[in-house]
Amino acid sequence: MDYPANTPQTRSFPLRRRGSVLEWSEGLSKRNITHDMSGHGLVTNIPHEVSIIRGDPGILGLAGFALITFCFSVFNVAFPKESPNILLPAAILFGGILQIICGLLNFGIPGGTFTATVLSSFGAFWAGQGLLMIPSLSTVTGLYSVEMLGKANGVYNLAWSLTAYWFMFICLRLQKGTWVLVSALFFVGTTLLLLCIASFSGVVGCQRAAGVTGLIAAVLAWWKATADLLIEEGEVIPTGRWDTTLEKKSPLDTAI
């Protein structure tokens, strides 16, 4: 059936779902601007038409991670000997529970397994940090010596440092990713490693250095979240995206 030149076609078109927020895919914005698009949604095969059917939970998770990391890092830099217990609500709610919810929502999105794993893991980390600040737990921790608590905290931070570096390695192997995210995971791992050293040695300088690297990680997480928010409005800010999908095609695919 022929349609007039200015009459929109009413037949249905096949849809495809975009990948994870921590990844990216190529497409068009709602402003009909060609760019590399990040986030979720269903995209028709009609040129210059994008239909976003749901929000992107990963962006909110990144924002929660960035905020609580920034707050704790400021304490490590400026007040290394002061207790950060005032941050308990933010650690449990915005940094912990919110990240876990956002991560679990990503498990229901095709291609969102990596995002879901990262956000849920660090959400559990910050929720645990917040629980340790609850005053009623001081009676439990009071049963152990300061030296023993330092060693336990050092092992804990070392394990999470290795986890962050593990996520960074996986991110480097993604077919579609960004250098901003890789850098953020690197600085997160470095922050936790420095906190591990500070726990074992008691050197305040290591704790202050961890605060500096933590601030860098928070800024990078905010940058990635900002890029993913603006992309739906057709605004693109650099995040160092790459796409190796074409390089990994089999010879049979190339022949076809």
Automatic annotation (TrEMBL):
Keywords: Membrane, Transmembrane, Transmembrane helix
Protein name from the UniProt record: GPR1/FUN34/yaaH family-domain-containing protein
The keyword Transmembrane helix belongs to this UniProt entry's keyword annotation: yes
Species name: Umbelopsis vinacea
GO molecular function: acetate transmembrane transporter activity
NCBIfam families from the UniProt entry: AceTr_1
Family: Belongs to the acetate uptake transporter (AceTr) (TC 2.A.96) family.
Superkingdom of the organism of origin: Eukaryota
Entry membrane topology: Multi-pass membrane protein
Pfam families per record: Gpr1_Fun34_YaaH
Broad class of where this protein is predominantly found: membrane
Subcellular location: Membrane
Keyword tRNA processing: no
Cellular component per GO, a single term: plasma membrane
Transmembrane intervals: 59-80, 86-107, 154-172, 179-200
